[in-house]
């Protein structure tokens, strides 16, 4: 119910004394339930939301859902079984991509990989109940993700798989602590019994949540959201209809701001103190547009149309 399934844990709680019940305890109760538990996922199942869904015996979703482990973007590793359950459902390579990259996937890919067991077209609740009743009618056993081995067995005893992945992400992850921790935890999922892997994950999460890197990344996360809130402007304020704009200065900032207006079809006048810096600035703008066109993201017609608005 509501706007979405679960978009993640409440990160304002991180660094504070934990309050019972812990998420690990809740997920353990769900996974060990003698009754069938089906997650009916709409919207987003991210971070702790996906970890909860993976602790259920089966997962049913809709076309619009997004699934992911995004903790790495806050300088963290998944802390409630994500590094241990995800490889068992989608395989080691995809789990590494999702956990270390932090980018979510769509429902179709989730279904193809085995993260989602069935997609429902219309009424999710009715579809999920029908799925649960079918599982019971067919006498299927309770499917605990912790017990699945087929998608991790092939990587067991093959450190070269993880070495190759480390090399492929080395440039993007330089200076960050969490990506390496995530790789080691997926490796633990492959080579250790589930309970030992969970214990390793918990240790790594506590170490990372107290690290200066994660504290800095969480600070940025909250600061970006605070920057969008203007104290004396109510949230329901209607935006003004901007017909035209002017930018003072054709330097790096001025040119970039002018491009933002032109990109959405708003004519913009760029004002400079002399002809030479004006021409130089507009030359940089054109060069930026031409570079985008060279990558196939703009047509030459789009380039001329946007330059014509400046």
What would the keywords be for this entry?
3-stranded mixed β-sheet; 3-stranded parallel β-sheet; single chain; mainly alpha; 310 residues
Unreliable stretches, pLDDT < 50, 5 or more residues?
none
Helix percent band: 40-55%
| Percentage of β-strand residues | 5-15%
What's the total number of strands? 8
List the total number of helices: 13
Oligomeric state as shown: single chain
Give the end-to-end Cα distance, rounded to a whole number of Å: 47 Å
Average per-residue pLDDT, rounded, comes to 91
What Rg, in angstroms, do the CA atoms define?
A: 24 Å
Encode the helix/strand succession as letters.
Answer: HEEHEEHHEHEHHHHHEHEHH
Structural class: mainly alpha
Largest sheet: 3 strands, parallel
Q: Globular, elongated, flat, extended or rod-shaped: what is the shape?
A: elongated
**Lateral strand order in the biggest sheet:** 1-3-6
